[in-house]
Amino acid sequence: MPVYLVLIGLPGAGKGTQAALLSKQHGLAHVSSGDLFRDNIKRQTPLGQQVEAILKRGDLVPDDVTIAMVRDRLKNPECARGAVLDGFPRTPAQAKALEAMLTELGGRVNLVPYIQVSEPVLVERLTGRWTCKGPGQHVYHLKFNPPKAAGVCDVDGTELFQRPDDREETVKNRIAEYVAKTSPLIEHYRSLGLLVEINGDQAIEPVTAQLLAAVAGAK
Ligand code: ADP
Ligand code: AMP
Predict the structure, then answer these.
(1) Is there an atom of ligand 2 within 6 Å of 37 CB?
(2) How many Å apart are CA 179 and CA 74, to the nearest integer?
(3) Taking the complete model, does pTM exceed 0.90, yes or no?
């Protein structure tokens, strides 16, 4: 049976960083809706053109567009063993659609680690975040997780850049979007007994250790 882990937490909580580590450790796909949108924008596909301005403002992309994109990815053979979902679902309608998709795929949401981080820490993480231009969109931090050579990705050697939506005004809007639209998911998954709270205010390694223990305990 495929396994699906859903990471939730504010922008900058460390979902992408931890999803990359967890997916590798458990042989699961890493499915990041933000990465999928950015890849479409980079390639200027019709979907990319449709969502570019929305990402720039830090608003959420409409549910129907987001759900169709994630459904396509989860049906891909690469996701046959399951996935670590990062950034999806972000609304109750997306959560409902995910449950239906996973039933179709013979699985279910197995665990929802909620990475909790205080707001000043988030801002520092987002303003120091650098991402690579390669297809893996590997993530670094100037201070907390610097690349070996300045400005260059350790994994694929591509150049690093700062996401345009990590500017302070946009960060504020992204946090407001999360509070208004995504935070109801916390109670939803808590009521289903799937939520596990993770202290994200620690360094990357201790956060990974908490996540691995939570996943081991869920099996
Ligand atoms: P999210 O996917 O939740 O938006 P990221 O994984 O991209 O968050 O992390 C945001 C930034 O913070 C990145 O620059 C990343 O390198 C850094 N980071 C992630 N986890 C930690 C941590 N536990 N301690 C310090 N910095 C972190
Ligand atoms: P992220 O990489 O998760 O920080 O997402 C970057 C941006 O992509 C968000 O600010 C939204 O504009 C868009 N996005 C990513 N995931 C979703 C989602 N599940 N629903 C709606 N919009 C999303």
Answers:
(1) yes
(2) 26
(3) yes
Say yes or no: CB of residue 203 within 6 Å of ligand 1.
Answer: yes
Q: Is residue 33 part of a domain?
A: yes
Whether 120 shows a pLDDT value over 90: the answer reads no
Residue 14 lies in a domain: yes
Sign of CA dihedral 86, 88, 89, 90: positive
Quote the CA–CA distance of 2 and 169 in Å, as a whole number. 39
**What confidence tens digit (pLDDT) does each residue in 161-192 have?**
999 999 888 999 999 999 999 999 999 999 99
Domain assignment present for 87: yes
In the reported structure, the alpha carbon of residue 53 is separated from the centroid of ligand 1 by a whole-number distance in angstroms of 24
Beta carbon of 13 within 6 Å of any ligand 2 atom: no
- Specify the residue for token string 């099996």: 219
- Our count of domains for the chain comes to 1
Q: Which ligand has the shortest distance to the CA of 48?
A: 2
Atom 19 of ligand 1 has which residue's CA nearest to it? 14
With the most atoms of ligand 1 within 8 angstroms of its CB, the residue from 6, 116, 123, 141 to mutate is: 141
CATH code (residue 89):
3.40.50.300
Whether residue 155 has pLDDT greater than 70: yes
| pLDDT digits 0-9 by tens, 34-80 | 999 999 999 999 999 999 999 999 999 999 999 999 999 999 999 99
- Looking at the CA of residue 139, tell me the nearest atom of ligand 1: 16
Q: CA nearest 17: which of 215, 208, 217, 210? A: 208
131 is a domain residue: no
Residue numbers of the domain that contains 112 = 3-117+182-218
Average pLDDT over residues 83-95: 98
